[in-house]
């Protein structure tokens, strides 16, 4: 019997408190449990669908949700640092889940800032969440390495413009964008057809961002500490942490694990922040196994 290829995902948007939020809806033609995928900072809703294509994860009824201010999502004109709150990320996810899955509990899979958003939805809407995977996620928003420096400078009233200018400079050419990515890895990015495809796609969405909004996201996230919310999370949580992550250091994963009532921590040897470049196959396998166990 020939395998049936699922229909192409559908792009749609919802409005949440003035934010236009992009959703890529891959529920049609799929019969697995409901899964909500959330990308990391400076990426887009198109990130996860490319990772899922051709893998066993594509059998799930999934949606990929864009973070606020990340093209093709659009922030309100008056978006500012003080708007970057736990509630913003939680409300965006809750609205997307309601739109696509009604009242059905879902599995949340978030990378980096997406991991933070997933944890906060699990804290604020426990009845809507079946399980969580936090992949290089955090609850304390002070990052390390290059992105941590961006955060620090973004909060300066007189130097913050340099972050905006720097991100615009990176958008000037694919070569600069690749170099920007390489600075967040611990080993050379493999020159494969998959990596070329995902780099080209993410570069196109990166260029379309409003970098003033990106500055406010960097600045606002630096002040966040939602550690006290973790004890309220009822759903089981899988914490995947790159052992050599320079952005969200492994100590943050251990901090989260210690405060959650029902969690499992897996440290990924030799993996940095860009798991899709440094540990893609093992990470997708771990995600698949977890969702299967929790469904």
Q: Would you tell me the structural class of the helices and strands?
A: alpha/beta
Query: What is the helix content?
Result: 40-55%
The first-level CATH class is given as Alpha Beta
Strand order of the largest sheet: 1-2-4-3-5-6-7-8
**What is the architecture at the second tier of CATH?**
3-Layer(aba) Sandwich
Report mean pLDDT, rounded to a whole number. Answer: 94
CATH superfamily: Alpha/Beta hydrolase fold, catalytic domain
Overall description:
- This protein is of the alpha/beta class and 295 residues long.
- The protein has a single domain (10-294), classed as Rossmann fold, CATH 3.40.50.
- Helix content is 41%, strand content 17%.
- It has eleven helices and eight strands.
- An eight-stranded mixed sheet has the order 1-2-4-3-5-6-7-8, with helices on both faces.
- Helix 2 crosses helix 3 (113-124), helix 4 crosses helix 8 and helix 5 (160-170) packs across helix 8 (211-222).
- It is globular and about 50 Å long.
- The two termini are 27 Å apart.
- The relative contact order is 0.15.
- The model has no long low-confidence stretch (mean pLDDT 94).
């Amino acid at each position: 019997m020939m395998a049936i290829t699922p229909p192409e995902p559908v792009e749609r948007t919802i409005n949440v408190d003035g934010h236009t939020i992009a959703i890529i809806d891959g529920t049609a033609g799929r019969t697995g449990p409901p899964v909500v995928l959330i990308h990391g900072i400076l990426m887009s809703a198109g990130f996860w669908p490319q990772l899922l294509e051709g893998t066993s994860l594509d059998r799930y009824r999934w949606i990929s949700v864009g973070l606020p201010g990340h093209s093709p999502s659009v922030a309100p004109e008056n978006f500012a640092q003080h708007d970057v709150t736990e509630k913003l990320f939680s409300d965006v996810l809750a609205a997307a889940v309601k739109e696509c899955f009604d009242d059905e509990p879902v599995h949340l899979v978030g990378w980096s800032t997406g991991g933070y958003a997933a944890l906060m939805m699990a804290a604020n809407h426990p009845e809507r969440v079946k399980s969580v995977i936090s992949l290089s996620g955090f609850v304390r928003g002070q990052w390390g390495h290059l992105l941590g420096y961006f955060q620090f400078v973004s909060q300066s009233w007189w130097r913050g413009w340099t972050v905006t200018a720097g991100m615009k400079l990176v958008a000037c050419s694919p070569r600069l964008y690749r170099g920007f990515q390489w600075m967040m890895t611990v080993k050379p990015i493999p020159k494969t057809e998959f990596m070329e495809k995902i780099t080209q796609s993410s570069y196109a969405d990166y260029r379309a961002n409003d970098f003033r909004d990106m500055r406010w996201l960097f600045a606002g996230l630096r002040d966040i500490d939602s550690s006290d919310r973790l004890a309220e999370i009822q759903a089981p949580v899988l914490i995947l942490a790159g052992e050599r992550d320079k952005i969200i250091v492994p100590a943050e994963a251990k901090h989260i694990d210690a405060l959650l009532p029902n969690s499992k921590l897996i440290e990924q040897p030799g993996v940095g922040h860009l798991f899709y470049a440094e540990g893609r196959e093992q990470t997708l396998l771990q995600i698949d196994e977890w969702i299967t166990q929790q469904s």
